[in-house]
Amino acid sequence: MRKLIALFMLSGILMNPVISKAQDAVDQDTAVVDTTEVVQEEAEVEETSPAITDDEIVEEERGFHQIIKDKFIEGDPAFMTPVLICLILGLAVALERIITLNLSTTNTKKLLARVEEALEQGGIEAAKDVTRNTKGPVASIFTQGLMRYSEGIDMVEKSIIAYGSVEMGRLEKGLVWISLFISLAPMLGFMGTVIGMIGAFDSIEAAGDISPSLVAGGIKIALLTTVAGLIVAIILQLFYNYCVAKIDSLVNDMEDASISLVDILVKYKLTR
After folding, report:
1. Which of 57-61, 96-100, 192-196 has the highest mean pLDDT?
2. 3-class DSSP state for residue 174?
3. Secondary structure class of 106 (helix, strand, coil)
4. Average of per-residue pLDDT across 167-186
5. How far is CA 98 from the centre of its chain?
6. pLDDT tens readout for residues 239-256
7. Which positions carry the signal peptide feature in this UniProt record (predicted)?
8. Which of 42, 87, 139, 158 would bridge with 134, disulfide CB 3.0–4.6 Å?
9. Are residues 138 and 106 in contact, defined by beta-carbon separation less than 8 angstroms?
């Protein structure tokens, strides 16, 4: 019996390495199968997902500034540069006008209250000091009107009307240049269009055949210059309309304030 048990134990010891090797082989086979399945799944994902080319990566990296630069070069700098100059000069004049008009804005109600208070406390000279120390076209008109007070209310009204026209001319100064660039930019763009089309027909005539590759360059220049001129005109038109609206608002304030000043002077004269 002991020999039989010893024989079984010896058999188990001898079979253990074999079983272990078999188990390892099974595990390895399973790992290989799993790895193969993963590789196949990744390959399927790569096949189904859209491929990203180098051109798309470069296109994403290009910014707005680079695109504008490329279109400027493609449209021929000889035609695009005058359009760009119109944009730069037009924006410079427009920004100067916007700053000047905003600085010319005056709180007319507050100014009228200060003038009336100065008239009651110190008379005409005190009111002049108030208007002289205040910036803006409305205050300048008040100063001219107060300087004519000794000549009568009628002269005050005439002085206000005359000097109001002068101040209105100052407010509108520079708008003619913005209007010029608004008209000039599309014209320059259309000129580039015509010259580009002439170049395209010259290429057709020289080749004796109509080919898309021959006319594409000239037509592209024509379209780009036209678009550039229209964009410049649209941008400057927005600034021009803002300036015109601001001037109209200032002129209305001047007219209303002038009428109120005359009423205040009439009231002041009646109380003397």
Report:
1. 96-100
2. coil
3. coil
4. 91
5. 16
6. 999 999 999 999 898 888
7. 1-22
8. 139
9. yes
Give the type of residue at 14: L
Please give the backbone phi and psi of residue 245, each rounded to the nearest 5 degrees, phi first. -65, -40
Q: What is the pLDDT of residue 157?
A: 86
d(C-alpha 246, C-alpha 57), whole Å = 47
Is residue 218 a contact partner of residue 196, using CB atoms and an 8 Å limit? yes
Query: What span, in angstroms and rounded, lies between the C-alpha atoms of 170 and 97?
Result: 10
Q: Rounded to whole angstroms, what are the CA distances from 105 to 100, 110, 164, 243, 254?
A: 9, 12, 15, 13, 10
Residues 195, 206: Cα–Cα separation, whole Å: 16
Chain length of the chain: 272
Q: What is the mean pLDDT of residues 82-111?
A: 90
C-alpha neighbours within 13 Å on the C-beta side of residue 132: 9
Residue 177 in contact with residue 96, Cβ under 8 Å? no
Contacts of 40 (CB under 8 A, 6+ apart): none
Distance CA 153, CA 145 (A): 9
- The whole-chain average pLDDT of the chain stands at 75
Q: What is the mean pLDDT of residues 164-172?
A: 87
- Measured at the CA of 121, the angle between CA 116 and CA 126, to 5 degrees, comes to 75
Task: Transcribe 189-248 into DSSP letters.
Answer: HHHHHHHHHHHHHHHHHHHTS--HHHHHHHHHHHHHHHHHHHHHHHHHHHHHHHHHHHHH
- Residue 78 is predicted with a pLDDT of 78
